[in-house]
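User: two proteins, same treatment. go.

Assistant:
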Amino acid sequence: MKHRTKALVAVVCALALTGAFALVGCSGSSSSSSSSSSAASSSQAASSSSQKVELQIFAANSLEKALPEVQALYTQKHPNVTFSDTQFKASGDLVAQLQSGASADAFIAASTSSMDSASKNGSIDDSTRADMFLNDLVVCASQNSGITISSVEDLGTSSDINSIAIGEPNTVPAGKYAVQSLETAGLCTTTTDADGKISVTYNDSVANKMNDGADKVGTVASYVKQGQCDVGFVYSSDIYRYDGIQAILTVPANYHKAIKYPGAVCTSSKNAETAKDFLNFCTTDPEAQQIFAKYGFELA
């Protein structure tokens, strides 16, 4: 009887040991599998971070000097990311390009209305939209002109001013802000049709002075620099990027809508996460902030 009891105990112990070894084996296998999975995940992440990406940016013409420097800084800190030939044009023209099927990774406009248009035609991911920069509107003259004014109203009374350049108000945001300022000063009236197109009627004091067809704010600066127009409406940032012009008046902020530069990732982007990271970099990286400040932009 004792022998049979001992034998039974021995069998039970053997089975228990076998089960224990099996559990240890399973645990080791599970741990190994988990480790392999983690390593594969890390490898995949590393591969993703080193994958070459080229971003196509559409940006308002007034960013033509500042943005390339920030892009170079981003590439320096993210060597796998480069930028194709960035399109710097009037915001309205860029919206039209996007609507016509042009592909871009990110869009930075010089007005909220331009970004609103891009949103309405489905060109941007609204969840990524954010105001990035602020700017001021100024009246500029050539550096050696000697022209001085103390208000927007003076544009209608100054004998030194015979020609005034502004951007085309339906495509160039700076032109739209200029018209708003002239209207506030009582120098014109505007109407907007059902499609949002602005029509301007200038009063007699400036009607013969206006050149309001510039295709971008840079063209306005060029007209003034070259003497084709006595003065023009540009952004304060343009004074930093164009030689030969100077600001003779900063237009009061309450004469026009707030000048905001919103940015967003485009729905056509194949590199949406990287594009979103770049837009965030523009407003959060201290060195990028210094570059934009150098050209007269303020953070929104």
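Protein 2:
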Amino acid sequence: MIDTDLIKTLCSIPSVSGNEENMHRFLLNHIEKHAGSWKHQPEVIHGPDFQHCIVLSFGAPRTAVFAHIDSIGFHVRYSNQLVRIGGPKLVSGYMLAGHDSQGPIEGPLHIDEAEETISIQFGRTIDRGTPLHFKMNFRETAEHIQSCYLDNRLGVYNALKLAETLENGVIVFSCWEEHGGGSVPYITKYLWERFRIRQCLISDITWVTEGVPAGEGVAVSLRDSGIPRRSYTDRIIKSLQEAGVRFQLEVEGSGGSDGNEIQKQPYPIDWCFIGAPEDYVHSPDERVHKRDLSDMLHAYRILMNVL
């Protein structure tokens, strides 16, 4: 059963790239509160050397799961103009929220096409550099979950649910993925030097496309702007087929994830992006089919046992 209360809580926590402290704190509290009931107890690795990232090590790990905890958003510039963080969809009227030294902030996004600027309509000048995020409007039906920041709160949710039964493996909660990366290189170095990790799975959310419709299974990506090693993805496909997991193969020429950062590092580490597809990407209305999320959870439990 999908824990929509936990998903809603995760979506409600502001965590735009570069400002992940609130999510970092929530995850540490969640782990401290719930880890005692997990089947196996992890080593919880965090601190100044990991910035706001968290690493959970279970048993004798062979495979690492990466789930980024940041999201797209905006920085306030001058006179309430905005600069994008990552690639949020721009539509006038989208409600934005945040908090600066003067108090809470809430107002609509405004696009001035003539001046080629974006701004927030708000009754006072907001502190420069203030991060803003989409205001949450969480919706649930029998088939779908819809909210801002399902990318990548559902990847984080998947990792937390995986932790409940994981015996051997590493779970990484990473930062900055939506705006160029930065945490994955030093975490990859740590995983290689300490555990000799040679394979990773990317717990993230992808796009609904003409080839990957909603409701037809979790997406296993054969490529985006990066190309994982085919011998590794073949092993994954074979394992999922044998376990009867519903999945779809994704082939795209753009997009990226923590996997792209892993591929650029000087270590022989394979990676594969496996995640539920979503509609209305990078908007306040991201929507994911519940069956695809359940397939994602199933796929990770199988793969962390057999890879």
